[in-house]
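Blinded run. Sample ID left blank on purpose so nobody reads anything into the name before looking at the predicted structure. Input follows.
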Amino acid sequence: QVHFVESGGGLVQPGGSLTLSCAVSGALFNNIAWDWYRQAPGSQRELIARVNSDMTTNYDDSVKGRFTISRDNAKKTVFLRMSALKPTDTAVYHCNSFGFSTPRFSWGQGTQVTVSS
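Blinded prediction complete.
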């Protein structure tokens, strides 16, 4: 059984920075890609960042240049460093791992990021 612990969210002013963490237990970690998704109120969940098993990364255009995804395989933790935050970044942020365009695991509770303005 997979257990996600997403943390690091909170309230931040526009232009500020936050770093999110996703600690994973009970699953394979090193040999698969890990993703960050977000879902704003009234919107669909969207993929915003991926770090592959070879450490290459992919970003959605909405966050490219502002967000950085990384992973620590020894700690089984995925990070998302966010800077130049905008009110439109307000959402619940989730981590997961996708294979063949489907999530490998059940969704966790996520962590709320609110950019106030």
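Unblinding after everyone has recorded impressions. The radius of gyration is 13 Å.
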